[in-house]
Write a structure and sequence with these properties.
single chain; alpha/beta; Arc Repressor Mutant, subunit A; D-Maltodextrin-Binding Protein, domain 2; 3 domains; 3-stranded parallel beta sheet; LysR-type_TF_proteobact-type; LysR_HTH_N; Putative transcriptional regulator
């Protein structure tokens, strides 16, 4: 079945004119004449059977249908641009590997080791994308994910890389060496948002009494948690 789509030229001209609110500025950006843009918009409106613009002096203003269509066209063109740039960066004689990974793990563990992988597999281009939350891998566009164990990975082929062992850390100025256990209850506790019950589990496993294990500031990234501890903002489990 043949798709009912406007021409690429008309779509690009429309998005540009909608963004500038001016046929003249759109023409300048696209190296066309204002008349060419106007004719493109006329053909596009005829194709759609909908009026997209109204003229206001020397400018044009999107009508409600035009506003909705402009947002959709812009999203599609942005996606096409991203996908095209991605393909342009792929080697013709090699392969690529798209991996979703938590940012702190990527920065502190994975990236420093990628040079060794590159030496062993010079024809494979590795792309990393940040994903803090678990997600469904199938249909995501990723070849693999390096993440914490989670039910979202059920049915996927998994391999355990590391076991996590959390220990409390803080700036030395905050800690009295002779009262370390007691200090955990008196110092501000720092939390990672994706692991909100870490302090409760730590208290249960170690037998340390914490008056309110959930109290304290929360941070999205593990790296932020570490920096907060280094800055003396409290004690963190890392």
């Amino acid at each position: 079945m043949r798709r009912k789509l406007p021409s690429n030229a008309a779509s690009i001209a429309f998005e540009t004119a909608a963004r500038h609110g001016s046929f003249a500025r759109a023409a300048n950006e696209l190296a066309l004449t204002e008349g060419a843009i106007s004719r493109q918009m006329g053909r596009l409106e005829a194709f759609l059977g909908v009026t997209l613009f109204e003229r206001v002096g020397n400018r044009v203003r999107l009508l409600p249908n035009g506003e909705r269509y402009a947002a959709q066209v812009r999203e599609l063109l942005d996606r096409l641009d991203r996908e095209s740039q991605y393909l342009m960066g792929q080697p013709n004689d090699g392969a690529s590997l798209d991996i979703a990974v938590s940012p702190t793990f990527a920065l502190r563990w994975l990236i420093p080791r990628l040079s060794g992988f590159g030496e062993q597999h010079p024809n494979i281009c590795v792309h990393l994308s940040e994903r803090m939350e678990p997600f469904v891998l199938a249909g995501s566009g990723f070849d693999a994910a390096i993440h914490f164990e989670h039910p979202a990975w059920t049915g996927m082929h998994t391999h355990r890389l590391l076991s996590e062992v959390l220990i409390p850390v803080c700036h030395p100025d905050l800690l009295d060496p002779g009262k370390q256990a007691a200090a955990l209850d008196s110092l501000p506790r720092l939390h990672r948002r994706q692991n909100p019950d870490a302090w409760q589990r730590y208290a249960q496993e170690t037998g340390i009494v914490l008056s309110n294990a959930a109290m304290g500031a929360r941070y999205d990234l593990h790296a932020m948690l570490i920096e907060a501890a280094l800055a003396g903002l409290g004690v963190a489990l890392v």
